[in-house]
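Final report, closing paragraph on structural work. Over the funding period we assembled a curated collection of sequence-structure pairs, and we close with a single example.
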Amino acid sequence: MAVQGEVVRARTVINERVDSADSAASVEFDDAARLLSPEGDGSCLVAAPGVTARARRLTLSALESWGLGGQGEVAEQLVAELVANAIRHTGGRSFVLRVLRGSGRVRVELRDPSRALPCLIKGDAEDESGRGLRLVDVLADRWGVDLLSRGKSVWFELKVRAATTA
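Its predicted structure, as stored:
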């Protein structure tokens, strides 16, 4: 985990909370479960007014189509943080959002053109910014960064809680 400007040396997972009942570090995502474009490549988002709201709507739409609307509030908040960080720190004008469903997890990825790694900053209560990745760190079950040939993918995963019937 990078804190206050430390360089992340790992290529992928930055942080993971491990429960004793779920210690698998890798989750396979079904290619057929990719949503948001017929090819599974994701949805292109342009850095313009309303982009965060669009990313939230697309994420919620994917979750609802899988019957996972209960995950929506957290996923919407976290995708908004990823979009805000990408706009503020990468200089990119467009991003790609992907939402995938795997075995027991949902993964949300935001690809941007920068290879600069995000830093998890330990902020103070008075700070006006810098809490985005801290929120992702606290609310996501796993999150990380994958370096790509062009840019990176910042992602988070949420465990899928099975719906119970009364």
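Residues 1-27, 30-39 have pLDDT under 50 and may be disordered. The CA atoms of residues 15 and 143 lie 6 Å apart. We thank the funder for supporting this effort.
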